[in-house]
Write a structure and sequence with these properties.
Rossmann fold; 11 helices; 21 strands; single chain; four-stranded antiparallel sheet; 2 domains; 431 residues; six-stranded mixed sheet; GMP Synthetase, Chain A, domain 3; alpha/beta
Length: 431
C-alpha cells in the first residue's frame, strides 16, 4: 500500500479537501472489502464504488468487541507482514490487540511528524519522551517515530523516575517534553524540591497525552495552568487511540486538535447513532485511511467530544476536535442528572486543599448510580461536607464525599502496571 502525502492539505479549501478524502475513502473501502474477511462479509451487500462522504454514515460501525470476537478476520494482510503488535490502554475494559505492518509504522511516523509540527516543534528541537516504549504500548514508539521523522532529536528516557528525568533535563537540555500531564506536573514539583527551577530548564513546549487538558469551553484546566506556571512553557493537548493509529494535536493557537484529512475521517454521533452537527457533543467515530494491517471502518472510540469546523487562527481550514469530555461507558446518572467523571475532577482540581482523589459508582434498582467521591486533604481544616457543597454548587448534585489518607488514595489509583492514574471505579468490579 502506498502512503499518500498531501503537504499543506490542512490549509486548502473545503472542496479540494473533500475531493482528496473522497478518493482516499474509495480506496479504503475497496481495500477492506477485498482484504479483510470481517469487512468482506460486513459489506457484502454494498457496492464499494458507491460509498462516498455523503453516505458513509449509512455503513455499519466497528467497535472494540470486533477485536475480541473477530480479531483474525480483521487482519487484512498475512501474519508474516506484521512487524509490531501493541495493546490498547484498556481504559474501560480488556486491552485490544492491534497489529501494525511496516507501512502502518511509516504512516504513524508521518502522523506524528505533522502533529508535532503543528504545535511548533522543528528539527532544531530536542524532545524528552517520558512515555514508555515497551510493554506493548504504542505511544512511546509513535512519538519517537514522529520526532525522528521530523528531524528533531529524541531522548527516550521513557517511564523512568523523577530523578532520572531531572538528570536528563540537566544533561541533555531538552526544549520540549512529551508525557502525561499529572506526571509532568509532579516532575516539576520534584525538581523544585531539589532546588532546581523548571522555568530555567529551557523547556518551551510540553505535549500532553492520556489525560484531558481543557474544559468544554476550551479553557485550560487547573492541571494545565499548573504545568504552564511551573515550567513557564506552553502546553498542547493531543487525542489518540491505539486502534485508529492516528493522533490529533493542538496547533500553536491551542484551540482543538486538528484532524488530518488524508489520514482519517471523523464523525460525532448522537445517541441514535446518527451524525450530529459541529459543536454538538457525541461519541467520536473514526475511519482511519491508508491503514494496511488492521484497517477499520467507522470505529466507535467510546470517547465523547465535539467538532469545530470554523477556520483556525493558525491558518488551517481543517476541522478540529474539541476536548474529550468523558467516556460513554463512564457516564453517570445520579439523582436525575447526567454527568461524566471529568466534570467532577475539574471541580476537585479547583478546590485548594484537595489532594489526590478517585470516584466510585454503583447502580441501584432504578438505574441511578450510587456516587462517592474519595479524597485526601492537604488542608486539615477542610471537611468532606465543604467539598460536597462545592460539587453541588457547580454540578447541581451532591455526592457523598469520603475523606481518606493520601497513602490510601494513591494506593488505589496508582497500580504497579498502570500507565496513568485510574480515578474511576465501578463498585463490585476489581480495582
Amino acid at each position: 500500500m502506498e502512503l499518500h502525502r498531501y503537504p499543506g492539505v490542512e490549509y486548502r479549501d473545503a472542496e479540494e479537501v473533500r475531493r482528496i478524502q473522497e478518493g482516499l475513502l474509495k480506496e479504503h473501502i475497496a481495500y477492506i472489502a477485498g482484504n479483510s474477511r470481517f469487512y468482506h462479509s460486513l459489506l457484502s451487500s454494498r457496492d464499494p464504488v458507491s460509498v462516498n462522504l455523503m453516505n458513509l454514515h449509512s455503513l455499519p460501525f466497528t467497535d472494540k468487541s470486533s477485536f475480541e470476537d473477530n480479531e483474525s478476520d480483521l487482519l487484512a494482510v498475512q501474519m508474516s507482514e506484521i512487524v509490531d503488535i501493541v495493546l490498547s490502554s484498556g481504559t474501560t475494559g480488556r486491552p485490544t490487540r492491534v497489529m501494525y505492518t511496516e507501512h502502518d509504522l511509516r504512516r504513524l511516523a508521518y502522523n506524528e511528524e505533522i502533529s508535532f509540527a503543528s504545535c511548533g516543534i522543528t528539527r532544531d528541537d530536542v524532545v524528552l519522551l517520558t512515555c514508555t516504549i515497551d510493554r506493548c504500548f504504542v505511544a512511546g514508539l509513535a512519538y519517537f517515530l514522529g520526532v525522528r521523522s521530523l528531524g528533531a532529536a529524541a531522548i527516550r528516557n521513557g517511564n523512568n523516575s523523577f530523578a532520572s528525568h531531572m538528570e536528563m533535563i540537566e544533561r541533555m537540555n531538552p526544549t520540549a517534553i512529551v508525557g502525561v500531564p499529572s506526571f509532568i506536573r509532579k516532575l516539576g514539583i520534584f525538581m523544585m524540591s531539589k532546588g532546581k527551577d523548571p522555568r530555567s530548564s529551557g523547556v518551551k513546549r510540553i505535549i500532553c497525552i492520556g489525560e484531558p487538558l481543557r474544559s468544554r469551553d476550551m479553557r485550560l484546566l487547573k492541571m494545565g495552568c499548573d504545568i504552564e506556571e511551573i515550567w513557564s512553557a506552553r502546553v498542547f493537548s493531543t487525542y489518540a487511540s491505539s486502534e485508529i493509529i492516528t493522533t490529533f494535536c493542538e496547533c500553536t493557537a491551542q484551540k482543538g486538535g486538528h484532524l488530518h484529512p488524508e489520514l482519517a475521517i471523523v464523525e460525532i454521533i448522537g445517541e441514535d447513532g446518527d451524525p450530529v452537527p459541529a459543536g454538538v457533543e457525541g461519541e467520536v467515530v473514526v475511519t482511519p485511511l491508508m491503514v494496511e494491517g488492521m484497517p477499520l471502518l467507522r470505529f466507535r472510540t467510546g470517547d465523547v467530544s465535539f467538532l469545530i469546523d470554523e477556520p483556525c487562527e493558525c491558518g488551517r481550514t481543517s476541522t478540529r476536535i474539541g476536548p474529550i469530555i468523558g467516556r460513554k461507558k463512564q457516564m453517570i446518572k445520579f439523582k436525575g442528572t447526567t454527568l461524566y467523571p471529568q466534570s467532577i475532577y475539574t471541580v476537585l482540581d479547583e478546590i485548594p486543599g484537595v489532594g489526590d482523589y478517585f470516584i466510585s459508582v454503583g447502580a441501584d434498582f432504578d438505574l441511578s448510580h450510587e456516587l462517592k467521591v474519595h479524597v485526601s486533604l492537604s488542608d486539615p481544616g477542610m471537611t468532606g461536607e465543604e467539598i460536597a457543597d462545592r460539587l453541588q454548587a457547580q454540578l447541581r448534585v451532591k455526592p457523598e464525599v469520603c475523606v481518606s489518607t493520601e497513602e490510601n488514595i494513591k494506593r488505589t489509583i496508582y497500580s504497579e502496571n498502570s500507565r496513568k492514574p485510574k480515578r474511576f471505579f465501578e463498585i463490585g468490579k476489581e480495582k
